[in-house]
Amino acid sequence: MTIHPKSGAKNKGKFIGLVEPNSIGPGDVKTGIDHLKELGITHVHLLPSFDHYSIDETNLNTPQYNWGYDPKNYNVPEGSYATDPYDATVKIKEFKQMVKAFHDQGIGVIRMLFITILEKRGNHYLIKRFQGIITVTTKMVVIQMRPRAATKRHPKDP
After folding, report:
1. Is 109 exposed, middle or buried (0-12, 13-18, 19+ CB in 10 A)?
2. pTM for the full predicted model
3. CA separation (Å) from 64 to 59, 81, 87?
4. Residue 98: exposure state from Cβ atoms within 10 A (0-12, 13-18, ≥19)
5. Contact 32, 1 (CB under 8 A)
6. Whether 51 contacts 72, CB under 8 Å
7. How far apart are CA 93 and CA 83, in angstroms?
8. Keywords in UniProt for this one (predicted)?
9. Residue 16's closest CA among 62, 86, 77, 76?
10. Nearest CA to 28 among 4, 5, 6, 2?
């Protein structure tokens, strides 16, 4: 929504960039939160925004992409979406600032939770995946979990 060089956002690809008011892209098209309000949406669904293993926050000048399905620290905002990935306080404050800005505009926030647990059973690994939805409100957090399991043979096993 904001990472494109012509998005008009000052904080491109950041939590706070998503809620910057008055950002305009090519053709005078509203971007960020103004675009979402213009669409009339009631909720925004943030794909995993937790800290990811595969994003190197010390090397953000190199393009990196991740769907977020390799969470490292649950409930810790991903540093690459903060203006200072090294400062945990900044990550948390900017995430909260983004959620508050959505709420101030009457837009609910839904976060995706994806947990993968790997268990070795003999020559097989059992991959347990739990996919859930976290609804963030000003007064409570609601978590709905839906388990999924699959058995797979490890590639190194005969």
Report:
1. buried
2. 0.71
3. 9, 12, 20
4. buried
5. yes
6. yes
7. 11
8. Hydrolase
9. 77
10. 6
- Measure the CA–CA gap between 102 and 20, rounded to whole angstroms: 10
Q: What is the pLDDT of residue 111?
A: 78
Tokens of 54: 């595969």
List pLDDT tens digits, range 34-82. Answer: 999 999 999 998 877 877 777 778 888 887 776 666 666 767 888 889 9
CA–CA dist 93, 78 (Å, integer): 12
| Angstrom distance (rounded) from CA 130 to CA 59 | 30
- The more confident residue out of 46 and 117 is 46
pLDDT average, residue stretch 148-155: 44
At 117, which amino acid appears?
I
Question: Could you give the CA distance from residue 99 to residue 93 in angstroms, rounded to a whole number?
Answer: 10
HEC string of the chain equals: CCCCCCCCCCCCCCHHHHCCCCCECHHHCECHHHHHHHHCCCEEEECCCEEECCCCCCCCCCCCCCCCCCEEEEEEECHHHCCCCCCHHHHHHHHHHHHHHHHHCCCEEEEEEEEEEEEEECCEEEEEEEEEEEEECCCCEEEEEEEEEEEEECCCCC
